[in-house]
Amino acid sequence: MRKAVTIAALCVAACLSTPMSAQDPSKKPSEDLVKAAKDSKAKRKKSSTKVITNKDVKQAKGKLIVLDTPPAKKAEKTEGASSLQIQDATLRERREAKDRVDSERRKVDGLQKELDAVEQSYYQENDPNYRDNVIQKRFAQTKRQLDDARQDLANARDALQKLEPPPQPRK
């Protein structure tokens, strides 16, 4: 900390101690600034980018290349439909997909609770014959249903993700 203060004090002292007569009295300080600005402008690189205007596009003789093509499914919908109708259809599809994900999630939750109840009843039952023949079969059936419901939930989430718009890059 003391070094920084000492260095700052020395810099201020050096600036103040330079004699005013060292400057050429015939030149004004503004002339020096103008000359320095012109020199620095000459040293800077010119920008290599070009702004494309409508005039440039009209004069272009090349072909237009589209890099991102929409899926064929969307192309069918756009024929004869206005952009408002397309947006409405897309919004409706997203809402239906979200509703499907929610219903599948509720189904998975319900089956998980049912599976837990069947497992609990297995341990509460005193009759080993009833446990092995009835409760174990119900447990296996509920487990299969839960696995199928989880797969349906994953499929519904994938379908919803395909319908979601891509994230916008941050600026």
How would you describe the overall organization of this protein?
With 171 residues, the protein is an all-alpha fold. The chain has a domain at 101-165. Helices cover 71% and strands 0% of the residues. The longest helix has 42 residues, at 83-124. The mean pLDDT is 79.
Relevant terms:
171 residues, 0% strand, elongated, mainly alpha, 6 helices, 71% helix, single chain
Individual helix count: 6
Roughly what percent helix?
over 70%
Structural class: mainly alpha
Q: Which descriptor suits the 3D outline?
A: elongated
Encode the helix/strand succession as letters.
HHHHHH
**Biggest β-sheet strands, sense, barrel:** none
First CA to last CA: what distance? 39 Å
List the helices and strands and how they pair.
Elements: H1 2-17, H2 29-43, H3 54-59, H4 72-78, H5 83-124, H6 128-163
Short description:
The chain is mainly alpha-helical and 171 residues long. It has helices at residues 2-17, 29-43, 54-59, 72-78, 83-124, 128-163.
